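Lecture 7 notes: from sequence to structure.

We start with a single chain of 292 residues. Read the sequence below before looking at the structure.
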Amino acid sequence: MSTKVRSVFESEGRMVPLDAILPIRQLKPGDNDWGKLNAVRASIKEVGVIEPVVVYPQRGAPGKYLLLDGHLRLVVLRELGVKEVLCLVATEEDAFTYNDKTNNLSIIQEHAMVQRALTKGVTPEQIARALGSEPKTVKRGLNLLDGIHPEAVDLLKDKAITGPALRLLKKVKAIRQVDMAQLMVSGNNYTRAYVEALVVGTPADQLVDAAKPGVGKGISEEELARMKQEMETLERDYRLSQDRFGENSLHLNSIQRHVKRLCENPKIKKFLGTRYPELLEEFQDLVALEVL
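Now the structure, written as tokens:
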């Protein structure tokens, strides 16, 4: 049996005057998107609008449209004096999806895009203009992943790690890079401070230059030694917890299945409900858990 799928957009884009588009929110200096405005401005000046804005016809106002997605693009287009823009016209007024499902590129994904653009003949100067950056900044970023093991890169490719944090990985050897990447992913912590702490806690034989770790400046030798010992202890405890977690989850799943069978037995359920109602309630809560 076939299911008819209803389109959420009109089949063709539509040129809409900017004056007819009504934003559903206003940008402020403190807005998270505000910092991207320069990059959007530079990109539109260099290559134009790549992704159409998304609008929805305003009820009771013919010819007017609510802006669902593309607030930064609209601001820039108005600054540039553009009169109309190609829009995708939505058939449902759903601004939540566009805002909730936005996936920002990680720094590693951006690096991969720049590399692909260069192989296709785009110059660093063109990329810099499109990003609102300096050519020297683009060129400096080309070696971002040099010296980082591919497995560590793969683990972090879609994570919110920063350039300075990534560069700290180059201070340790390949096997330790992978180890640190796994710890970052497991702990969901990609901050520079955390990566620096992991470097400080790295044994000397796993540092690229054991004599010059490059972190912990201003810290005495005793404090540095204590930090290393604490990080080693923390990592050891964390790995033990990881190892036990799988075993404990398996045991708990087995217990849950067993308790479920007990609760499904009418006689046992009646007995518990009469003699130990609070225990029955606890059992039922355990059985109802979907994730252990």
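The CA atoms of residues 155 and 185 lie 7 Å apart. Keep this in mind for problem set 3.
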